[in-house]
Amino acid sequence: MSNAVEQIIANYAGESPGVIGNLRRLLNTGTLAGTGKLVILPVDQGFEHGPARSFAPNPAGYDPEYHVKLALEAGTNAYAAPLGFIEAVAHKYAGRVPFILKVNNSDSLGGPDEPCSALTSGVQDALRLGCTAIGYTIYPGSGLRNEQYSAIRELIAEARDVGLPTVLWSYPRGAGISKNGETALDVVAYAAHIACQLGAHIVKVKPPTDFIEQKEAQKPYAEIPKATLAERIQHVVQSCFNGKRIVIFSGGAAKGTDEVLEELRQIAKGGGNGSIMGRNAFQRSQADGSKLLKDAMQIFKSA
Amino acid sequence: MSNAVEQIIANYAGESPGVIGNLRRLLNTGTLAGTGKLVILPVDQGFEHGPARSFAPNPAGYDPEYHVKLALEAGTNAYAAPLGFIEAVAHKYAGRVPFILKVNNSDSLGGPDEPCSALTSGVQDALRLGCTAIGYTIYPGSGLRNEQYSAIRELIAEARDVGLPTVLWSYPRGAGISKNGETALDVVAYAAHIACQLGAHIVKVKPPTDFIEQKEAQKPYAEIPKATLAERIQHVVQSCFNGKRIVIFSGGAAKGTDEVLEELRQIAKGGGNGSIMGRNAFQRSQADGSKLLKDAMQIFKSA
Amino acid sequence: MSNAVEQIIANYAGESPGVIGNLRRLLNTGTLAGTGKLVILPVDQGFEHGPARSFAPNPAGYDPEYHVKLALEAGTNAYAAPLGFIEAVAHKYAGRVPFILKVNNSDSLGGPDEPCSALTSGVQDALRLGCTAIGYTIYPGSGLRNEQYSAIRELIAEARDVGLPTVLWSYPRGAGISKNGETALDVVAYAAHIACQLGAHIVKVKPPTDFIEQKEAQKPYAEIPKATLAERIQHVVQSCFNGKRIVIFSGGAAKGTDEVLEELRQIAKGGGNGSIMGRNAFQRSQADGSKLLKDAMQIFKSA
Amino acid sequence: MSNAVEQIIANYAGESPGVIGNLRRLLNTGTLAGTGKLVILPVDQGFEHGPARSFAPNPAGYDPEYHVKLALEAGTNAYAAPLGFIEAVAHKYAGRVPFILKVNNSDSLGGPDEPCSALTSGVQDALRLGCTAIGYTIYPGSGLRNEQYSAIRELIAEARDVGLPTVLWSYPRGAGISKNGETALDVVAYAAHIACQLGAHIVKVKPPTDFIEQKEAQKPYAEIPKATLAERIQHVVQSCFNGKRIVIFSGGAAKGTDEVLEELRQIAKGGGNGSIMGRNAFQRSQADGSKLLKDAMQIFKSA
Amino acid sequence: MSNAVEQIIANYAGESPGVIGNLRRLLNTGTLAGTGKLVILPVDQGFEHGPARSFAPNPAGYDPEYHVKLALEAGTNAYAAPLGFIEAVAHKYAGRVPFILKVNNSDSLGGPDEPCSALTSGVQDALRLGCTAIGYTIYPGSGLRNEQYSAIRELIAEARDVGLPTVLWSYPRGAGISKNGETALDVVAYAAHIACQLGAHIVKVKPPTDFIEQKEAQKPYAEIPKATLAERIQHVVQSCFNGKRIVIFSGGAAKGTDEVLEELRQIAKGGGNGSIMGRNAFQRSQADGSKLLKDAMQIFKSA
């Protein structure tokens, strides 16, 4: 039994043993097992940006098995993907690496006027495929905010009933938010807080910049340390119920290795629970991608 | 058995013993137990205004446990919060202080064109978490009024079926209401009356100013005493079925202690059933916030 | 057994005994029991116009019990009100005076762009509260007409299943209808007919003026006697399936006693089934309001 | 408003206004309106004993309309019968006399080995037919006791949900109860108590003899006054939650008028809430049956 | 916050906050609040043995309000009763003393061949009436054992979903168990263990004698200390998951005060969590019954 894990689990004391058990499974798998830290490999970019934009840099990635093998080989805590990618590999890999079924997805071909992903799978699929959790994206700031908050409320309840925790991708986006505002510190911290208030077990946001978007927020943020990414991460962690909810950070667009690793060091230093790293892993060669994931885990392990 | 409480309860004679029992529980808890008065600590500002704007003035408040401990230590009748904040503390505090689950919430990042909060939790959550009541916000004046009135109708019915009373936050807002009009006496009294007509067990409105918004209302209000806040509170109480429904008042934005206490004295003098005080309590230091809550309760106790 | 009542009941031969029984109950209660005539006290103005505009002229009316006592003391056939007002008195008065639960309501603070009341209670509430019928407002002429006609269709069906008849308030209103047109003879008769076609058991409209709104209607109305209110009432009665559906008339805004009584005499003379009189009754003193209701009933009794 | 009725109603404070309203309707109808006493005409003997055994003594009774007219003409509080008899008259009489739909029935042609009536109608029928209450027979002592208690539990809940109270016929019968035991004081009081514990709003039992059936009950009953029927009635009333539940008594097989009236005097003297009198009424001529019902009501009126 | 209570609560860590909250409420009410001990007043004997056998010794007990007042005045942790007794007092006492709704009951007039109580109320009733827990009787040893175990399985699940814990009365009875065997140490310990295995939150059994019923159990029980009641209680506590489930003991038939108090001292000494005392309390005069309950609580308080 890991103290680090059980300290985290204690923050979810009201949950049923089924949900708790799956949280433990996520936290006790792979290289970071028992550390209370998580590195997750997500591969929903094929759906979100199209296959070629996602997999042409490393064509092995067209094959769904490539990713789950990468996750397994690198020793990540979990592998997250949309329905089709999970279905393609679940029979062979269920029980070997925890799956997170991403139950809604957006594409870049068009859609509603306001940001809102489509429901593409559900809790029953997650059970059928042997998944350990479900994942869902909300867009705080969207004109369709109400629909998304209501939908995730029902999904979390449904998932809980069958012992599955929920990972919430919280991406601020909408008419009232500027492009820079989407990663502004005030907005990211707010989006993370909303996800926690909605009942997410694990929250995923982008690493925030030191930009402050909302006029009303200028005053409090004048006092909040935000010069380094670590400081900003620390504020996001604080905004997640003072660290009582697991919060992990995405890396965003592919970038240089040094840049990625430095970002991870800052996330670790700021007290983030880990990283969810997609394109930076699977758009590199198998060897490089795996190495990067392993290096990422070493960073969190030594944190 | 408190006469003050039983006189209030008698106004709810048609309700089931389950609803009655939970109303008694609210009225018989904490420092004001048995007085027929209520002071409630609500903490939904993290959701409504963002975490830093809410908790930076007193960073202890990022931690959900801070608030429920404050409520318990200060001796309030109840603690009201959104799903996430309640979930984070329910296992440890259920049965020790009554929870009011705020089942809809808005945020400041964006949303529908007309004022309308998102449904973020429900009656089944309230039972699961051991809550004593649910809370809901309506925006009379909103172009989405009909959707909100219909939604609360169903929620009240669902909550009643399982013995839970409903607290209705009634905040006039919309294209036809000026900024000053949102706290105008005629509009606040009207909003309180609508909440009662919708079946609310407890109504929460803002303290009204002496402004009169609606042209058609000028004439009757020429005769209604409204110079002091106490007089205006009295008219709101009258508008709540002549005092047969519990009505409590929020304090709004944080302000000076003297100002807060004077407002509470006027509310008490005007016959208001109590106060729901959030930012003024949790944005002060623990000692000051607790003292303010206790002073507030003393005012209602001596009323 | 009253012949007058049974002649009316015969027009509803296809209805279930439950609906018939409650129609009989409405027609066999109070001073007008057995006459086939109805005087109903409706108090939804607090919701529709705000509490002060409704109750300041006679502040006793802020108390929901005032109205049901007035109805009982004056001997009206029924008392109609929104959910909150009925809930506040139902335990004490159910079974003593028939309640009509007004299941939709509008307010004057704002709302959808087109006239459309909000659903504020339902058939299950009517049963729970011991009501004898439900009431609903449609706005023929509204851009949201279709939503309202569909909603009332479902409500009438649901109410019928449990033995409750439906009273339909039919108020023409919308972009294509002038202010004068709302009470024009052609428009009122048309609105009454639509209510009958929608399956209303009792129709409520405003007393029509001799104005003709619709160009296409000028020709037929040239031949229809309409000089006196009695003649116009007769035409509305005729438009209600030649008198085979019960139609009652509202008095509208409060006015002088002589004016009210003369209007009632004309309604009675024209064959109207009765009157639904709110503000004219409860905005007077208790003695005067009760006397007016009793005088109204005498007019219909002698008709 | 009758004090006698409202004192009874106060014992049902936890019920919804719908149930309360229908209890009021039963208690405020007919000759005994407002006295807190009830005389009910039940005609289920055609089903229970066959038509000729029931109606040959007064062949007018083969016609279902005969009975409801008798109830109406005599001024009873209600008319109770199985589905078919109610359906045959409901359209004409709904709203004129309260119906109690007897939703289970037994016949004398055969059936299960243990006493257990068949469910022959339901709550939805009661609403459709405009009934004021449902009635149900349990046989405490039956080997099928558990099935009956569970069934009535669900029916009472279903009826309550739509505002209908339940009358429970409680007839001890079964392998462990002797023929004399079925009307023994201990057994009748026990059966009445069970009906109250099951949630009956009105209990109907047979007038008890001074026989004591159960060995274990001999000792307490040695001290309980039981020489006169009035004393025994008083004990049954006491066993019905010390008089807080309405209990009425059947007359059983047809007998001499003097005998019937004396029994009623004793029931009234002992504090019974009334009588349910079938064969003694409808097996006499119309004039005699009506007179007997009226004499019965006089006895309770003067009590 | 009471350490004694929280140590007990920790054994139910997997339960939802709703169930936990109601367990806390039971453990934090009345004289024994915060001690981890429970004294409960149960009054189902009217149903189980008939009204006179139950209430003739102290006729005030025919009135359901007598018992809830006794529970409140004496300061017990809870009041347990069948549906009717709870319904009769719930509107007035809900929220003032925790109710345990006994959802199945047996009577002494007859029933199925094998011991099996009838379902007489349910979880929805418990919510409607504002109860804190449900209670249920199983008869291990009954030929209808399977039906009972399945039924309680479903009830516990249904109750848990709405936040209600379950108290299980476990009374060994059946063809294979001798009269003495019903209270034999091996059998009582076994019955208590079965109740725990079925998921009971609180177990109620009779104090065991030193008789050993089952041949196969003679050998292990030769080694188990059982000379004193305290030793036997200790073994039952041990059989309840080594003290990780709450177990309370009934007193059985009324007896002398000294005898009752000595039994309670032994229960307390053996580590029992408390006592459920019915006839010994309500069959005495109000003063004596209340004193006995208070003396009982003093014994557990000093334990």
Straight-line N-to-C gap of chain A: 19 Å
Q: Which term fits the overall shape of chain A?
A: globular
Sequence of secondary-structure elements of chain A:
HHEHHHEHEEEHEHEHEHHEHEHH
Major β-sheet of chain A, in short? 8 strands, parallel, barrel
* Class from secondary-structure proportions of chain A: alpha/beta
Largest interface in this structure: A-B, 46 and 41 residues
What is the arithmetic mean of pLDDT of chain A? Answer: 96
Oligomer: homopentamer
Question: Keywords for this structure?
Answer:
303 residues, alpha/beta, 14 helices, 13% strand
Kindly describe this structure.
Five copies of one chain form a homopentamer. With 303 residues, chain A is α/β, with parallel strands linked by helices. Helix content of chain A is 45%, strand content 13%. The first copy, chain A, is built from 14 helices and ten strands. In chain A, α8 (145-161) links the parallel β6 (133-138) and β7 (166-170). In chain A, α5 (64-74) packs parallel to α14, α9 (185-197) packs parallel to α11 and α11 (229-239) packs across α12. The model of chain A has no long low-confidence stretch (mean pLDDT 96). The A-B interface holds A 11, 13-14, 140-146, 148-150, 153, 157, 172, 174-177, 186-187, 189-191, 193-194, 196-200, 214, 216-217, 220-221, 223-224, 235, 238-239, 241-242, 244-245 and B 46-47, 49-53, 56-57, 59, 62-65, 82-85, 87-88, 90-92, 105, 107-113, 116-122, 124-125, 129.
